[in-house]
């Protein structure tokens, strides 16, 4: 039995602290990590075959189905690292350690990769799901011994030493049932909020479509508007340098797609380059107020009009468009994000991993352009609608963040003994732990006696000893 960890409340009556190693199966390789070095490399991956469980598969209580495979022959060579249904998968590297999930029943033959561990619970011990939820709980994460600066890491000894708050076996089942009931409710609420988020995105798109076609500005029908290419309505169009800049803690701000949201420049995400890099990247055009930056890779189609005195150069995957005097930058920003523009470039996107548009295709995009005074009215209408949507989205984001923390609150209550009522008739957890230990010791004792008996076959003393022990 492990010592009570620090920084935790005392356990409820009938509970006990137990190390994870105490709760492991006594079968070989019940707690093991993946093979290191040349035994399992990316080059060994195949199109199909037994699965490889990697860090990206181990979510916070959820198995993430990102697939990698090895050949059956390679799987057999690495059989000591095999995963079975009923095992718990534990991340050994990254944030929020120990992060754990259950091995899915339909996983099939699989092995763990380096920086992942598999834990097989003792058949007479706590359930897989009880242990999984415990490992993800704040009480465990506060006290787990994690090493490594910058890249938190667990080794197998540290995993085995993790102290688990062990409830009586019937109470464990009640705790798991209550956790899953509360998580189901929480998931339903989160899904509903995400549907609202999706509806707000559709609302923004509908506003853009109606606005740039004149439907939201009475007397401003698009019937007499000009249709111009981006190249024709721009004084200049400049693409970013194709070299990757070296960023530093200070200097000149460098704008890339990570700093762009529809119509918004995320100043907190700006990164910095030195003066010589800035000068080299602005040699063709120094960004100024009213210019429009357009993402032609990654988040394709995101556009932002630059604010006064933008201290920026262009980072990766960004085009800069300086409109002619008859086109407002704020209007062009919205027009470039409208559904009509997206329809034009949808068939021209290149690249399956990182979608992108060619510079020439962006220059040929057709934009509806009304008179300047109508552009101003359209921008005002869009700003009004989008500000309402932005306020709603901000509230949703805040609520979703709080709901994300609710999971930890539920687990904290569960493993502090405060989520289900206790039953004084339940067998104390200490008896469960003693039973696991006795079952772990007896097979070894039997094995030694049987081996001695077979070496002295027919020996009355050996047979008598075996019989008494049975």
In short:
The protein is an alpha+beta fold.
Walkthrough of the structure:
With 470 residues, the chain is an alpha+beta fold. Among the domains are: 16-166, Adenine-n6-DNA-methyltransferase TaqI, Chain A, domain 2 (Alpha-Beta Complex); 226-369, DNA methylase specificity domains (Adenine-n6-DNA-methyltransferase TaqI, Chain A, domain 2, Alpha-Beta Complex), CATH 3.90.220.20. Helix content is 38%, strand content 16%. The protein has 13 helices and 20 strands. The strands form seven sheets. A four-stranded antiparallel sheet has the order 2-8-5-6. Helix 5 runs antiparallel to helix 11 and helix 12 runs antiparallel to helix 13. The protein starts with 15 loop residues before the first strand and ends with a helix.
> What fraction of the residues are assigned to beta strands by DSSP?
15-25%
Residue windows where pLDDT falls under 50 for at least 5 positions: 445-470
Distance between the amino and carboxyl termini:
27 Å
Please report the first level of CATH classification, the CATH class of the domain at 16-166: Alpha Beta
